[in-house]
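Q: How would the structure tokens look for this protein?
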Amino acid sequence: MEVANSSGHFSINIRAASSTLVTVRRVLSEIQISTGSNQRRGMTEISTTEDTEHLRSLDDYFRDWESDAFGFGYGTGEPHTILALKAFLELIPETGGYDYQELENALGATVAWLLINILCGNDTLEYGTSPRYAWLTPHGKKLRAYVASKTADELISIVTDFDPSFPGCSQDSCNCGPHGYDRTRVCPNPFWQEKR
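A: Here is the predicted structure in token form.
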């Protein structure tokens, strides 16, 4: 099994990969037996070419999104970035459009513009001719709804308390395919713009 991080470095751990696959198959079997279904609340089904299915939760996708967007908190920065992100997204109406002056007044100009730049850069915001009056993209609206459904403490826990052997994905490298890393696979993360 190959796993790539966002900088393209690879590591291979056959024993861990084999153990993970056995665990995934066992859990899927238990879910199907106990519920008669392979769908669980908050889980997204990812079909594979094999008879097995890999399930990733929205929490997993959010963790990947946060790591790709911010990613350098290492347990210390996340409380700050998550609080700022949550406040920023909560200030944007459900329609998705905002006025930069309202964001500046509520968050301070420094925080507002750092987030505008990050979120425009990763296509969470679309800005047309000016990011001063931008709006959420369709996947940005999904991110906003997800963040609004969680408390700040829950979001911080999601991005800091996880199994480090679970390979994350980035917009440029997908590790959640049936065989781990696949250079041709586009990660189905609902918080990222689909690559064409």
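The longest strand covers residues 43-46.

Residues 1-53 have pLDDT under 50 and may be disordered.

Upvote if useful.
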